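Before we proceed, please read the two lines closing this message. Tell me what the token row says about the fold.
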Amino acid sequence: MQAGELTREEADICRKFAQDGYVVIPGLIDPETADAAWLDYVTIWQESNPFNLPAQPDKFDPTWGRTGNVHKWVMGMHGLLHHPKIVNLIDLLLGKPCIPYQTIPSFYGSEQPAHSDAIHMTTFPLGFLAAAWIALEDIHPDSGPLVFYPGSHKLPYLLSEAAGIGIGDHKRLGRRVYIEKYEKMVQDLIRTKELKPSFFTANKGDVLIWHHNLLHGGSPVNNPEITRKSLVCHYFAEGVLCYHDLDNALADIANNGDYIGIVKEELATEENFDEQAYLLANRDVAEAVKNGIIPSGYSHFQSFGKSEGRKLRVDLKTQN
């Protein structure tokens, strides 16, 4: 193959991802690496417990052990998030270099209702996030395997506004508004579009990579005695705006896995001026700051931006 061309295997992977919204790579992670990462997690939990987890796993609580951004404490999980085989595939599928961002481990099946990552980890333009679900043991059908809906990534993106969730509603009203509005609309979509579920009963080391908009969740746990050890990793593409649509918060790429500030113009005022948001909205100013022409976005806003009518936040009204 000439430089810049895809191998036949890479072309098949891209074609599958575009058509169905996901691709499975059997045995991408060797079993020894998977075992070592999980042992590292359990050891740190038992010895120092930075996650503040109870001393014993709770098999009747599907959320138990789903520690956000476990890679910040556990080097084995950090290694999986940054595993070159996964990162290279995500780069290929996104068409841009990726930024490893967030991790969530699971001891047991999550039973999480179907959703798309787009409302939680949003990009502008849309579509520049992918996730990798890594099986850290053989996944039993009764453990509550990952469930996903092939082809659902082709549906229109369902974000907060379309779901009837106003800016600030989630922070003010809590998870109830998300469950009653967003999750209900997703279930209605699955029913009206007659989407058919698939279940990832994987072998240890198998990896499923899904598209930003693919609907997925956790299927019912039929036997709570059976674990479902796994790690899901999320990746943003470089060079796009990354934010949390539901909470109107910018992704803090420098401290991957966190969110900062606010992003939507409707809440932007001079009193809550956000340097990063202003620079994201005004790329010429960001370039000038980078090159030392002006000291900061705030100084530009005070001297020029206010009179020029510069936006304090990116205008997201053009999102699909």
